[in-house]
Amino acid sequence: MYVAVGADFPGTGNILTSSDGASWTSHTLSGYFPEGVVYGDGTYVAVGLSGTIVTSNDGTNWTTPASPTIVHLNGVTYGDGMFVAVGDYGAVDLSTDGVNWTHRLLDITLDFHSVTYGNGIYVAVGVSETGTGIMMTSSNGADWTSRTLDHTNSLHGVTYGNGTFVAVGEYGLTLTSSDGVSWTSHSMETFSHFNSVAYGNGTFVAVGNDGAIWQYGNPSPQTYTVTYNGNGSTGGTVPTDSGVYEQNAMATVLGNAGSLVKTGHTFTGWNTAADGSGTSYAANATFAMGASNVTLYAQWTEIPAVPTFTVTYNGNGSTGGRVPTDRGAYEQNATVAIFGNTGSLVKTGHTFTGWNTAADGSEASYASGAALTIGAANVTLYAQWTVIPSGGSGGSSGSSGSSGSGGGGIPTPDNSKVIAENGKLVLPVGRSGEVRLDEGIKIDIPANATEKELILTIERVLNTQSLLTKNEVLASPVYEVLKNFTENFKKPVTLTLTFDPAKLKDNQRAAIFYYDEGKKGWVEIGGIVKGNQISVEVDHFTKYAVLAVDKPSNEEVKLSDISGHWAEANIIQAVKDGVARGYPDGTFKPNHTVMRAEFAVMLMNALKLEGEAGALTFKDNTKIAVWAQQAIAQAVEAGIIKGYADDTFRPEAAITRAEMAAMIANALKLTLEENAATGFADEQSIPTWARGAAAAMKELGIMEGTGANAFHSAAQSTRAEAVTVLLRMLAK
Fold this sequence. Notes:
About 10% of the residues lie in helices and about 35% in strands. It is mainly beta and about 725 residues long. It folds into 5 domains: about 1-215, Neuraminidase; about 225-300, Immunoglobulin-like, CATH 2.60.40; about 310-385, Immunoglobulin-like (Sandwich), CATH 2.60.40; about 420-550, Chondroitinase Ac, Chain A, domain 3 (Sandwich); about 570-730, no CATH class. Strand 11 and strand 12 (about 120-130) form a beta hairpin. The chain starts with a strand and ends with a helix.
């Protein structure tokens, strides 16, 4: 696009545009009178009389940003990311975008007529108030230095091309310079005044009064190339720039289009020096070509090797068997499942009790299947041994002892539950305990949950602002639970929190979360809701709270075989809640029998229990499908599911109504009477182990009798019945 500007003063400004230099289209600017125009960084900028500044992105549509001056502006140039306009009274206006400008007056005793940029320098020419020509240069557009000339004629135009500055003025004055500092004058056989000069296609052309035209030189312009170097790359290809560039032409940096790679390194961009000490460029960056070819070297950042650590087992005085071997290499913060005594370690006179990170048992203890978080060092786990006590009561037979009340017998252990109401509990070894703080939190610790005396404290966290960084909604206070040792409990501890249902929207549910101090965020652990309380089993202590969780969206569930089914609404809700899923063919198969493995997955989906569980030990483990293993392991760990007497699980067996009732009762942690009256007509056919669960299911409205008020404990359940029962469970 060619753009020419001018003014019919006083009247309108004119802007002419052409794509070929022959056919021109006129655009008028009412009230604006441009006298100079330049193109840079995708923007045309024209300046002129009375502080005129207009800009355009296409040369056709022009806008008028606020001008900082009313002084006549006579010329404008672009270079080094800066628009520079000059005018009367030594005016210099600067802008990086053509829209926002800063203004200054260098010297009111001179007028600038023209300005150009080249070879890293701005050059402005004009005339002083005495009529003497002036020339000033600047490296940044703001700070200017006067240059000495060997002529006094006023100067009207200046340009740069092919490594040369050319300035023209009165009486055919022509000056040339390679650096903008030292100038050489040329004698011209004309008395015409030159008003402007331009460069193109290797030629300078000056024009002036009386139709004077001066042409200087027509050498082939010097061109330069941009080459890319892989700089030690081990694969891929360097990009190829087939362009040739004149000095000051803008070159665009290519990306890693050839997928360069270097083993053990990441590509980070390009630099003019192989060692990265030059100028760095990212893909699509631009730079002005200098007076030499440019080579851009790929820059590489070494990928640091991620340290890994090992877990080693030590027999710690064992007299037989073998220690387990963990061949893994683990990164920091990885979670490792602790091996059991797989090599049948023994120690004469002792019983194996687990592992500890200290030989003397003074540090963290771990049981088989427990989770160990890897730190920044290798871990050694030492076998722990307990002395097998010798027989007898500790006294002696015969006349040397007493069988009466003199103290020779074994004292009866105190198994009573220790209860604390103030948030502080001291629990002796082997005892069960319960601790509360107000009515907001309760913690139940089973007997033998730890081998150490437990000192537990509960504190309410008052300042929660720093804990709520992602717009979380608290439905309960935040509690911090602390204990006097770092290792986890050997048995699950039950945490119960009271929450405010009013904090939940219709599309939200309540769930217990713990605060991950390392990741600075909340982690959901689920829980079972009863009224305004929610309970969950935990094995360690930290900060806990009940948060509002959005339920799955009401996205339409499309299943082809449930329309008109008696459980249609329940099936849709179960699928939305993630309790169950349809089949790949778009069906749900509501009347299909539910297998034990399938129901275990549905149940755990409903409970939303989190975390890893120990390895399954059923004799028929190999029959348990991969998709069900985690859910079954979690259910076993939580005491919800048990195997059969022959130590099998039978995952592919159809689940009976009695089994389903027992599992749900375990999930709800109900206290059951073994021989409870169920109220069902076929009560005598209900197995003893399931009667308490059946009675509870009827009382809670979770499971009802079939025809004639019969429970039919041995009957198999369908997928529709299973999801219906689970939704009723969740409502309790």
